[in-house]
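User: Predict Nudix hydrolase 16, mitochondrial isoform X2's structure from this.
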Amino acid sequence: MCDLVARTGRHQQRCIPFKYRKCDESCGSKPKNIIEVLMINSQSGPGLLFPKGGWENDETVEEAAVREALEEAGIRGDIMEFLGFYYFKSKSHQDEFCPDGLCKAAMFAMHVKEELGSWPEQSMRQRRWLTIPEALEQCRHPWMQVALIEGFSKWHANTMMSAEEGDPGTISPSPAR
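Assistant:
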């Protein structure tokens, strides 16, 4: 039984949780780290999603991203970077004030430090670690593919280039904005 309770939100945010998996000689002549992202199943159809939700008046968008990742995917980690805002349409957000259901989501990169065995939405959600190409194939919505390539992959590549002088598998969180 899980002691945590899921909260409901007013605004949208998502995170792209990631970790490194060590790859041995089978990956080539030199062992290296493979980056994997975590996705969760959708409750309303096929395809996979990144953890998402709203944020409350008493928390920052970064705090909400951390909380939602814990509630939906059972993970804890560090927010590394704000990747940008991404726009999408949602049937559940269509109303007289927004007939198109246009939504705006803040997207973050989150370096996962811990996977919990029990979490609030465990009975409704399955989590899957995927390589970037696998994740691109599984994304439920095209805008998530854009966020993964244009936001996350570009940020990660730039971060790794900057860290080449140091340990290439080690990155540190950026200050919260």
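The domain at 13-163 is CATH 3.90.79.10 (Nucleoside Triphosphate Pyrophosphohydrolase).
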